[in-house]
Amino acid sequence: MNYRFERAGLEDVEELVPLFDEYRSFYGQQPDREAAREFLQARLENGESVVFMAVAGEGEDRRMYGLAQLYPSFSSITVQPVWILNDLFVTKEQRGQGLGSLLLEGVKGFAQGTGAKGLTLSTMMDNTGAQRLYEAHGYERDESFFTYHLYF
After folding, report:
1. pLDDT band with cut points at 50, 70 and 90 for residue 147
2. How many other C-beta atoms lie within 10 A of the C-beta of residue 124?
3. Which residues pair with residue 83 across a beta bridge?
4. Which residue in 59, 65, 112, 116 is deepest, having the highest Cβ count within 10 Å?
5. Which helix (H) or strand (E) holds 79?
6. pLDDT tens across 69-118, in order?
């Protein structure tokens, strides 16, 4: 298949919902397509995130096989913008086809085009496949800082 990198718009939300819901399920959340729809729609409508897709086909044959969602942030230390690569997902059936690399290269180009310092991400400690992919694309594991959370 011939895959391409595309930026998602509001018109893509309905097609993104199953993919985003599958991503959430991968991380242990109960399937909830309505919550996925509302979340994606709100992020895009409010300009709070940028979503990219790995797509194949045209017209009625167009299908989405991967997604990457970025959130804008800033580095106070370097006084520069930075993008948080919060979500990266490729369908189980399409893994190993280069879609993760397509998405990573695409978001890198996007971030560079915005003048950002770079990209930052987190992944689960046992997600070794993703870790290998990130490291193959030049991402470096943080050995200087611990991450803390205070969730409510």
Report:
1. confident
2. 11
3. 72, 119
4. 65
5. none
6. 999 999 999 999 999 999 999 999 999 999 999 999 999 999 999 999 99
State the DSSP H helix or E strand holding residue 25, giving kind and residue range, or none if neither.
helix 13-26
Task: State both tokens at 20.
Answer: 């985003």
Answer yes or no: are the C-beta atoms of 134 and 123 closer than 8 Å: yes
Distance between CA atoms of residues 83 and 90, nearest Å: 20
pTM reported for the whole predicted model: 0.93
- The crossing angle, in degrees rounded to 10, of helices 128-136 and 99-113 is 50
pLDDT at 120: 96
- Counting residues of the chain whose pLDDT is more than 90, the rounded percentage is 91
Tokens representing 41 are: 């729609």
3-state secondary structure of 48: coil
One-letter amino acid of 52: F
What count of Cα atoms within 13 Å lies in the side-chain half-sphere of residue 135? Answer: 9
Produce one character per residue of 44-83: b if its CB has 16 or more CB atoms within 10 Å, e if not: beeeebbbbbbbbeeeeeebbbbbbbbeeeeeeeeeeebb
Query: How far from chain centre, in Å, is Cα 141?
Result: 18
CA 122 and chain centroid, separation? 11
